[in-house]
Amino acid sequence: xxxxxxxxxxxxxxxxxxxxxxxxxxxxxxxxxxxxxxxxxxxxxxxxxxxxxxxxxxxxxxxxxxxxxxxxxxxxxxxxxxxxxxxxxxxxxxxxxxxxxxxxxxxxxxxxxxxxxxxxxxxxxxxxxxxxxxxxxxxxxxxxxxxxxxxxxxxxxxxxxxxxxxxxxxxxxxxxxxxxxxxxxxxxxxxxxxxxxxxxxxxxxxxxxxxxxxxxxxxxxxxxxxxxxxxxxxxxxxxxxxxxxxxxxxxxxxxxxxxxxxxxxxxxxxxxxxxxxxxxxxxxxxxxxxxxxxxxxxxxxxxxxxxxxxxxxxxxxxxxxxxxxxxxxxxxxxxxxxxxxxxxxxxxxxxxxxxxxxxxxxxxxxxxxxxxxxxxxxxxxxxxxxxxxxxxxxxxxxxxxxxxxxxxxxxxxxxxxxxxxxxxxxxxxxxxxxxxxxxxxxxxxxxxxxxxxxxxxxxxxxxxxxxxxxxxxxxxxxxxxxxxxxxxxxxxxxxxxxxxxxxxxxxxxxxxxxxxxxxxxxxxxxxxxxxxxxxxxx
Amino acid sequence: xxxxxxxxxxxxxxxxxxxxxxxxxxxxxxxxxxxxxxxxxxxxxxxxxxxxxxxxxxxxxxxxxxxxxxxxxxxxxxxxxxxxxxxxxxxxxxxxxxxxxxxxxxxxxxxxxxxxxxxxxxxxxxxxxxxxxxxxxxxxxxxxxxxxxxxxxxxxxxxxxxxxxxxxxxxxxxxxxxxxxxxxxxxxxxxxxxxxxxxxxxxxxxxxxxxxxxxxxxxxxxxxxxxxxxxxxxxxxxxxxxxxxxxxxxxxxxxxxxxxxxxxxxxxxxxxxx
Lengths: 538, 274
Hints:
The complex is a heterodimer. Chain A is α/β, with parallel strands linked by helices. Helix content of chain A is about 40%, strand content about 25%.
């Protein structure tokens, strides 16, 4: 085919493990025409990032090519010398990483990093590159494109940085760009701008792209074709509309189905029912700087789930810190079961501490890597409930069974020997072992794949019913709110913008900010982005 | 079984280091049995040559050099080990407290350490020894305190990295006391850098003690000691005799051996493959 830009045949790749090499990619084929956008989706560990990098002829440390070919514009990248490969990269093939903040050098200005590539490859002079950068910054709709390049990476926002990164990848007008989850770390309202900008610029320069993501709704907006990867193998590939309308494989269908989990909402609390936890008129600030919470008031009712939504910086995590006593508020009070909680953690009784537990976003850092599950889960049971010896052992085993982890297999394992989803289950268990009334869940599913996250949400819902738990669910993901919330609090800049039962919150009329938040969540409809941007412009 | 596999993966430098350390350990433990003579016993004439009755000859007072070497290693290594242990007990406990409690405790301790570290250690030690008078106990105490400042810095820095982790916050929220948080949550996660640091600190302490003894401010005669032995026999070097280099070599060999092993351990802990 004359217009085929990239052709990968039977690509096999191995990674180093404890004993020898294990396959990561098991013979994947991929074809990409000029100007075409291919969406690559799958769970983490499926091999999609590895495949994306391999398309550039690159392997990470600890991995190696085991066979197959990667033909880019008629040349097999795997057979080129490292020098020739390097000349292609950054020049004809570019890469945009998930975290632009981590990929930019914090010590150099954006525009200097922009011009580095073209100048090294001898495509442009420094002055040309800078003029070109301004033009591309404008095309990426960055504010103040003439001057933004002269700022340092920490002086611009995450969404702007991600766009600057895309502009940088475009600097030498490559034929192919690999996007590796470029919007995963962004808030929905920022994501929509970045997605639009990427789509326009790729179309304008007729650049081929591989768009890697685990978010189906995003890939539906961006890609002409979608390829589903699992365990290093292709599950299926089809044009976007075709696949969305009629996925052939069971696995693809299960990917499509996860977003449809809806817990049965608990009945609305009776008017005279006492909340288990109530936050009233709380104002809080860090040692220096303005108030991060201003007059925040909400109640959590027994057996219900309160979702707190907002962008990063809206104060939702600070609210959790105030409730747990890590940050004593400047004003207002918190009541637990009717009694006022002392503002400082150190002044609270063990019984008060037991009743409010917390589950963290990153299970990796939330579990001590040097403690076995027996210690991690057993400690709260021992600490709060005084269980010892055989009683303690029985309790730990019962808890593990509760979350479908076989006690005989798992009880003496360390967190490092668990998968991401299993770690998060252990995080839930640690909270549960205290027999709490309220559990604060801080973005507990946002670091997980959709399928795993779905499993965690179902588990939390089941535990809520079995143990009569109340949840405070902090999230920026509207899909999670839809799935699990009974009551929703929307926060922005430290204020509660709007709150009410879920059904009311998802039905118009909304407060302006709620409306923006809701309408920015990508939908599976491939025309959603086009339509939404039309509305925003209008 | 696991130990064997681990050893077989060690590079030759580390194996060499471990062998040397093991030999020194044997000498330290078995000194009274393997030394042909007592450490202060005058057995012959002054500066007798190598060979014959005395394998390494005799020293400036006519004591058997080999026996002096064996006891010298025993004395110097034991004192250095003791001093290092003391400096770790002090430095790591305070470092952990500073990192875990923070606030004014951290401020006071850190500034105090800054002050101590601002003065060159060996000069400071000399000054303090002049004030307190020479003696093994004073020397151990002074060097332990000075080295503890380095241990404090390392412990505090590594413990800080761990103490911001969510699992430590979870323990705080649970209501755990400072003791538990330090012992069960933080300490297990910083043991490998601390063990490596122990090896390095031991080397510095060993060198510092030898230096002070060489200057006559450390271990006092007639007790055998590697640093003092260099000085006692230093005159011989002008006659082209290498005897004074023997205790010096014994110091160098152990220092290098420990460094090899520490390098390997740090390398393993950092997870680098090559």
